[in-house]
Amino acid sequence: MLRAAAAAAAVFPARFTAAPAVAAADELRSPLLRVLGTLRGGRGSVLLGRRARFCSNSSASDSEAAAEAEAKAEDAAVAEGEADGKASSAIVPTNPKIEDYLSVVALPLPHRPLFPGFYMPVYVKDQKLLQALIENRKRQASYAGAFLVKDEEGTDPNIVTGSDSEKSIDDLKGKDLLKRLHEVGTLAQITSIQGDQVVLLGHRRLRITDMVEEDPLTVKVDHLKENPYNKDDDVIKATSFEVISTLREVLRASSLWKDHVQTYTQHIGDFNYPRLADFGAAISGANKLLCQEVLEELDVYKRLKLTLELVKKEMEISKLQQSIAKAIEEKISGDQRRYLLNEQLKAIKKELGLETDDKTALSAKFRERIESKKDKCPPHVLQVIEEELTKLQLLEASSSEFNVTRNYLDWLTVLPWGNYSDENFDVHHAQKILDEDHYGLSDVKERILEFIAVGKLRGTSQGKIICLSGPPGVGKTSIGRSIARALNRQFYRFSVGGLADVAEIKGHRRTYVGAMPGKMVQCLKSVGTANPLVLIDEIDKLGRGHSGDPASALLELLDPEQNVNFLDHYLDVPIDLSKVLFVCTANVIEMIPNPLLDRMEIIAIAGYITDEKMHIARDYLEKNTREACGIKPEQVEVTDAALLALIENYCREAGVRNLQKQIEKIYRKIALQLVRQGVSNEPDKEDLSVTANVEPSSGDGAIAKDEILKDSAVEDASVTNNGINPPSEEANEVNLAKEAVHEVHTTETPKEDSISEGKDTDGAKEDAVDKAIEKVVVDSSNLGDFVGKPVFQAERIYEQTPIGVVMGLAWTAMGGSTLYIETTKVEEGEGKGALVLTGQLGDVMKESAQIAQTVGRAILLEKEPDNQFFANSKLHLHVPAGATPKDGPSAGCTMITSMLSLAMGKPVKKDLAMTGEVTLTGRILPIGGVKEKTIAARRSGIKTLIFPAANKRDFDELASNVKEGLEVHFVDTYSEIYDLAFQSDAGTETS
Predict the structure, then answer these.
(1) For the chain, is the Cβ count within 10 Å smaller at the N or the C terminus?
(2) What is annotated as the active site (predicted)?
């Protein structure tokens, strides 16, 4: 902001010698003074314009000089008026006269023009220009020309550009600067110079005629005067009065403008028409180009008219300012008023008894909740509730303790104390539900039926902890849901995978901000019964953070001896969880801490063999997916060969989750194909209105059955095994829409139909009833068009394993798998016996390889004493799939057989796989994952298996369809494996 100088005064003559001129001035002065006369005050305040303002930085000597100049100017004005007989609106010149300044230094003004009678401080950064101004002031020629700078081409004058424009102006010199200056400016008196700040006082208008000097820019000027005008002209009078009237309206709202008028009248004297126009334009906040237009206008009437527009705009801005301030005040006062009225309303209602206060209403609500549970609720819980209700009445509603107590009572009263659901102990009903939801899993179902039978005999069911372990996708979580349905219990599931905070299980202390009870309390509130089935998912993936060990916190929850009085930190009262049936799921039970594992009954789900997957896909997955996609059974057929190929080549994992994804992928592509051909299975609106109350929807993919007419495009189109070369997965969607002829599979007689792309669908719908139902057939030959290339190749790399290669059996979290162990000779030489291991083996397998070399060396010495293979050969043992980490104690016998095969130069028996760990004395130790390894052997077409003798019981427990067609040998020592692995070819053929 620019400051005004109180000491420097504008010197304007206020006397007119001629009688008509005085009369005109009095006529103009009287209405303005009537409006603004009350604003006259002390001389302490000065004129503050938006950018053209009076400045208070002039020195004392400058003030005295200005005062003397004012006195001289007034005398000179009187003398000149008497001599000339007419009024003058210009500043009376000192010696030398103002008219004598025909060449002045050009001073660029970046923001606004300078009007006569106004002060303006200007910062001069050009040192040459500043020095020239100082020299002029010393020579009593303290005048310069102040000219507004033009905007650069292509710029908007209404947008503030900051200091960049000033910098570009300072860099301009000579003719370049002259081109950027407006022609009309103001002759300005240099009242003071302090540093690089020059304070200017405007005197009269100038027009540039020519350039005298380039640096600093000095120009020749002509002094401009207003055009002659008739002071008695009614239009001019009316315009000036309107300007005054508008100024008066603005003055009512803006105290800043009052200071402007007061200071201007003190320093200028009385107003006349030209001064009134200059004053209004100078103090308005208008655009600089509009102000320059007023400065350049010499016709008094036109100048008054331009000024009137500016002050009218200023009045509108003042009104807008008032409306904004009023809106803000109303908003603030409205909020306060509403608050006060609400408080008064509460007090009135309380006095009249129309409404109880918050605390009484809360207490009544909590007492109503607990009233129905009083008989079943434990006494210690009722006592705590009563104590908290009493405390609630004593607390202030605004205190933080009030909210804590209210939330605590909310949880205490909402829990289902002693509220148990009626259980269904019908074993046949449970068997039916379990068989509906899951195929196979007989051991799991048997365990659930045992639990139900015990509950039926006792008349009550005691909560047990069952842990279902197995690979992903075998149905562990869905089994828990089926058990809850069979028992008629409420089902609640929460996952503890990655859980690292004990408070998630045991709850937070109530003193913490945002405290919440643990998962079990939240479960009881959610299900509304005290005997739900709680599924704790991913219990083998518990984390351990800085907030304690959640696995240890689960001991109290899952231990049948402790969960009778389970204590949650938030509730701080014992809860009986003994009736809750806990079902946990885990992929690997070795990851579960032993104390926690000890509380649970483990039921292993090994996974599904191919036959089981076929049944699941056909009876469950395909049916659900077809309904979810809105496709009718008669519109599509997925052959057994396609499902078998899908299972063998795409979905070999133990579970069926990936199989479900692939089936969904097939049906999505079929749905897209049908829709592109113009099929719509949506029921007609008329049919819906008739059948809405008769036949409810059966699910998300529910479809009306026989009432819906099919589009002929569906009935005439199908995908066959060999009728059309199926497109690739990427082009399938486009090409299917373009195909015109398809070979048809019908339920009655096969026929061929050609469909043109422009066929009328309305006519087709009329004939649709008479046509046979056609199907999109998915077979093994075109399966790749729907699901892409096969993911798995045959696990068997060799049809007949070569010398030094033996197939082993492995167990993974995804199920069982087969893997080869290969041994080859790197170099041979006296005493060069060594062993190199590759294949990303773990420490256990590396130790097994060392043991295998030692045992193999002993057996070779026994069988072929003259063979020095191990002593003189450097061996390299490798397990393929080197990117997969491998570890575990079940590869010892396979490694020995591989080394002996290389040492003796004999391949092992065809279609043989083995598993087992070997001690240094040749004993075979038992292994785990018998079912998974057996399933993996069947998948690879293995006929002969070798297991440790200690695993015979595990094998006998397998289902008959898993054991069917396998020749299994159970061995105690490696010598038995030797005899089985290196039989003669004739023996191999006969077996």
Answers:
(1) N
(2) 890, 933
The answer to whether 476 is annotated as binding is yes
Biggest CA pair distance of the chain: 152
Q: Is 442 a catalytic residue?
A: no
Judge contact between 522 and 571, C-beta under 8 A: no
Selected catalytic residue, list 890, 898, 901, 931: 890
Per-residue pLDDT, 46? 33
Structure tokens at 338: 């509403």
Residue 186's DSSP bridge partners are 146, 205
Tell me, what DSSP letter sits at residue 621? I
Q: In angstroms, rounded to a whole number, what is the distance separating the alpha carbons of residues 137 and 130?
A: 11
Task: Classify 767 as helix, strand or coil.
Answer: helix
Q: What is the mean pLDDT of each run of 10 residues along the chain (991 residues)?
A: 33 33 40 41 34 37 40 40 38 58 83 82 84 80 84 63 54 77 86 85 84 81 82 80 79 68 62 77 76 80 81 81 85 84 82 69 84 85 89 82 88 88 87 87 84 82 80 86 89 88 87 88 90 90 78 85 87 88 89 87 82 87 89 87 87 85 91 81 50 38 34 34 36 36 35 39 42 69 86 71 89 78 88 87 90 91 87 90 80 92 89 91 89 84 90 87 88 90 52 31
If you ran DSSP here, which 8-state letter would residue 422 be given?
P
Q: Is 305 annotated as a binding residue?
A: no
Close Cβ partners of 884 (under 8 Å, ≥ 6 residues apart) = 840
The pair of three-digit structure tokens given for residue 172, joined into one six-digit string: 């301009």
Alpha carbon distance 764, 768 (integer Å): 6
CB-based contacts of 690, cutoff 8 Å, min separation 6: none
pTM of the model: 0.53
Structure tokens at 81: 């008026």
Tell whether residue 228 is among the known ligand binding residues: no
165 is catalytic: no
Residue 181 burial by Cβ neighbours in a 10 Å radius (0-12, 13-18, 19+): buried
Residue 472 assigned as binding residue = yes
Rounded-to-integer distance, Cα 934 and Cα 815, Å: 10
Query: Tokens 């003074």 appear where?
Result: 33
CA distances from 705 to 149, 673, 930, 977 (A): 84, 21, 47, 62
Task: Give me the catalytic one of 519, 632, 710, 933.
Answer: 933
**Would the annotation count 378 as a binding residue?**
no
Spatial neighbors of 814 by CB under 8 A, at least 6 apart, are 471, 472, 653, 654, 655
Burial class from Cβ neighbours inside 10 Å (0-12, 13-18, 19+) for residue 418 reads middle
**Tokens matching residue 817:** 């798998």
Angle between helices 892-904 and 843-863 (to 10 degrees): 40
